[in-house]
Specification:
This protein folds into 4 domains: about 190 residues, Hypothetical protein af1432 (Orthogonal Bundle), CATH 1.10.3210; about 200 residues, Rossmann fold (3-Layer(aba) Sandwich), CATH 3.40.50; about 180 residues, P-loop containing nucleotide triphosphate hydrolases (Rossmann fold); about 110 residues, no CATH class. The chain is globular. It has about 750 residues and is α/β, with parallel strands linked by helices. The strands form 6 sheets. A 7-stranded parallel β-sheet has the order 5-6-4-7-8-3-9, with helices on both faces. It has a 7-stranded mixed β-sheet with strand order 14-15-13-16-17-12-18, sandwiched between helices. It has a 4-stranded mixed β-sheet with strand order 20-19-22-21. This is CRISPR-associated helicase, Cas3 family.
Length: about 750
């Protein structure tokens, strides 16, 4: 029989003993305690014990033999061969010094310790403890004397009876629930960081100073809003502030030299803020977190530090710019949810442009803020418009925050005027554009892709004999083309660009895109969205003349495109009607920021919306989240975004790039085989796989479920390619061009046998 001589292994790649892994946790525990000594609801000694004992259950024959087999080394003799392996987390509590704990801690805190260790991995549940008792007696006892580690208390025997501490799981109604979330969450965080050989936390040393230096270099001093945020760093805030007033800098001042998360609704906005903070404010310790993080890092050569992506995923960076859904899925309370909630308990969360979220997401966010603040975390909502109904619902959930404050951009001590608004009670059309496009940057925003494509086609036909720069941007372009178009609209929309032209877009330009056009023609969606769209025109300029620079189309005797009483409507029909009523008489009306906010406050009241579907969905979502029991939902049942999209490649694009796509697929297969045979260079090989995947995904466009179903029913699905077992891309026989994007084929009613696949 092999003798272990204390070389009990925890991992094989790289080879690491249980003691080495435990010491790595304790180093990280010391580090996080030094950076954040005032974390609430944590008993540092209990957390230390959890770290020391969490993996000691790996001192069992079946686990050790599993690792030796991987290493092609001699195995141990197994005295209980016929029994299945018990997950090590279930065995680790057997090593705890139970009598010492019962003398020094109350039973509830002991439950926290036992359950943090017992459940630190999500494994198949044990129905009874008989197998644990057998394993402790016949297996673990064999090695107890051989395991030498001075931090483990060996004055007591191993215990096989600890069911009373772990069988009834700690729930939110228990008095020690908060301590459990913090202990279990931080144990997981320390364990993952130690396993990945990365820092558990990186200290935020100078975000405040870097932001101050940036303002000084630009020739500014902190304004009223920024000063308020500095003075209220320890409070939860709701800030309603006009475009161009410095909300980003104000948010960074509020985060200060603390751990922070800066959330925005759209990936393109997140990428832009990330680049701005890193390149202009020159704060280096910043992470980017959304569904395409790895690809974005590859583009920016951020993965030269191979651990950077792991640090991002493990929420180790001091500042992370991200989508909300990457953070708040802890509200579903599935196995492992404690890590994110514990991390947010000592963090500061910025929520930008809250009005852009769906009513479901608003409901989720309200409950997330409730849970975060109850554990000690802080938030600031910083937005151009804030529906009062959201504030009312937050108060109902007893979330504590400063009274909302409003800031307007002022010029010569007067609220800056940027917009004159005229309402047109018609469907959107190009009549006004024809008379008002020369020597201007024109922005046209439609509610739907179909309407945007229609307006673009009309403009092309109208100006076919003139050399006018006309472009179209919406969500139905392949990624490669969309990226190019986003760069182009940012270039034209730059305040220093002297070129003119017309851009037709959808609501994807509403949030945080730093563009400045001269005139806007837009369909009405709702009043809050309208003011977001207006923020793309005269962004930082004062309107000096008396000319209308905002035209709003109300739809005439029908709603605007995409608006209806169905569940697929882009906006609640009741909110659309209230918004229409609020602005219907505007004719070349001066509309400053104060007046805009007053209109939002008048429209989005609880009294006006209490019978709307918008209010009902928020309320129902909150009530549903409250009913969720800990660990009853599986991770695959969690869905924060009520949007189902399908990645597709238009056949015309596939045909043009078939060789590249097929070569990339083959390259992925070859690298995977290489990784299977040699695990020494896995991180670098993963980069190569991602690069090949990104080459293929550059030809992808996402389409909603109804469009995918239309393609399937009309035999327009041509083929399918598989990137891996989780990622399949469908090739569809739709029309596509760089100018217009994806459109249904003109002969859509014809059955085409050549392209039928499913």
């Amino acid at each position: 029989m092999r003798e272990l001589k204390n070389l009990f292994l925890a991992k094989t790649n790289p080879r690491e003993t249980i003691i080495e892994h435990t010491e790595a946790l304790l180093d990280r525990l010391k580090h996080i305690k030094e950076i954040y000594p005032n974390i609430k609801y944590i008993d540092w000694e209990i957390l230390k014990l959890a770290c020391i004992y969490h993996d000691i259950g790996k001192i069992n024959t079946k686990f050790q033999n599993k690792l030796y087999e991987k290493l092609n080394e001699q195995k141990l003799e197994d005295n209980i061969k016929g029994e299945k392996e018990i997950p090590h987390g279930y065995l680790s509590p057997a090593f705890l010094p139970k009598k010492f704990l019962e003398r020094n801690y109350d039973i509830e805190l002991i439950r926290v310790l036992y359950q943090s260790i017992y459940y630190h991995h999500n494994r198949e549940k044990l129905e009874n403890f008989d197998l644990i008792k057998l394993t402790v007696k016949e297996d673990l006892n064999r090695y107890w004397n051989e395991f030498k580690y001075d931090k483990v208390d060996k004055s007591e025997k191993l215990y096989s009876s600890y069911g009373k501490y772990v069988k009834k799981r700690i729930e939110s109604s228990d008095c020690i629930y908060k301590k459990y979330v913090m202990t279990k969450g931080l144990l997981n965080k320390l364990d993952y960081a130690a396993s990945a050989h990365i820092d558990v936390e990186i200290e935020n040393k100078d975000l405040f100073e870097k932001t101050t230096e940036y303002l000084q270099c630009e020739g500014y001093v902190p304004n009223e809003l920024q000063d308020y945020m500095m003075k209220n760093q320890e409070k939860n805030n709701i800030i309603i502030a006009s475009t161009g007033i410095g909300k980003t800098e104000a948010s960074l001042f509020w985060i200060g030299n603390n751990k922070g998360f800066f959330t925005l609704p759209l990936r393109v906005s997140i990428n832009a803020i990330y680049d701005r903070i890193k390149e202009k404010i020159k704060f280096e310790d910043i992470a980017l977190l959304h569904s395409e993080t790895y690809s974005e890092y590859l583009k920016r050569n951020e993965l030269l530090d191979t651990d950077f992506y792991d640090k991002t995923r493990q929420l180790s960076m001091p500042l992370t710019v991200c989508t909300l859904d990457q953070l708040i899925d802890f509200i579903f309370k599935s196995e492992g949810y404690e890590l994110k909630l514990a991390t947010l308990s000592y963090s500061k969360l910025v929520i930008d442009e809250i009005q852009m979220y769906s009513p479901e997401m608003i409901g989720y966010l309200i409950m997330a803020l409730k849970y975060i603040t109850e554990l000690g975390g802080k938030f600031s909502i910083v937005t151009a418009t804030m529906p009062p109904v959201i504030i009312d619902l937050m108060k109902k959930e007893e979330i504590k925050f400063n009274n909302p404050v409003t800031y307007y951009k002022k010029v010569n001590n007067k609220i800056q005027l940027r917009h004159r608004v005229s309402v047109v009670d018609e469907q959107i059309n190009i009549k006004h554009v024809k008379d008002n496009y020369k020597n201007k940057k024109i922005l046209i925003i439609c509610n739907t892709v179909k309407k945007a494509q229609q307006i673009y086609s009309e403009l092309i036909d109208e100006f076919k004999d003139e050399h006018i720069n006309i472009n179209l941007l919406h969500s139905r372009f392949v990624k490669k083309d969309r990226a190019k178009k986003e760069d182009d609209i940012l270039r034209l929309g730059n305040k220093n660009c002297k070129e003119t032209g017309i851009w037709v877009t959808t609501q994807i330009v509403e949030a945080s895109l730093d563009i400045d056009f001269d005139v806007l023609y837009t369909e009405l969606s709702d009043i809050s969205g309208l003011f977001q769209r207006m923020g793309r025109v005269y962004r930082n300029r004062t309107l000096e003349d008396k000319n209308t620079n905002i035209y709003v189309y109300l739809g005439g005797d029908k709603p605007t495109s995409g608006v209806s009483s169905s569940q697929h409507s882009i906006i609640d029909i009741e909110i659309f009607n209230l918004s229409k009523e609020a602005i219907k008489d505007f004719k070349n009306k001066e509309l400053n920021e104060k007046e805009k906010m007053r209109l939002v406050e008048m429209t989005y009241t609880k009294e006006k919306l209490k019978n709307s579907n918008y209010y009902k969905v928020i309320k129902d979502t909150i009530d549903w989240v409250k009913r969720i029991k800990e660990y009853e939902l599986e991770k695959n049942e969690m869905r924060l975004r009520n949007i189902i999209n399908f990645p597709v490649i238009p056949k015309i694009i596939y045909d043009k790039n078939k060789k590249l796509i097929q070569n990339s697929i083959q390259k992925i297969k070859n690298i995977r085989e290489q990784m299977r045979l040699d695990k020494s260079n896995v991180k670098e090989l993963r980069k190569e796989i991602q690069k090949s995947k990104d080459d293929i995904k550059s030809f992808v466009v996402d389409i909603p479920l109804y469009e995918f179903e239309y393609a399937r029913k009309n035999a327009l699905i041509y083929d399918e390619i598989e990137l891996d077992r989780f990622n399949r891309i469908t090739i569809i026989a739709y029309d596509y061009s760089f100018e217009k994007g994806l459109t249904r084929p003109k002969c859509e009613s014809n059955f085409n046998e050549k392209v039928q696949f499913l």
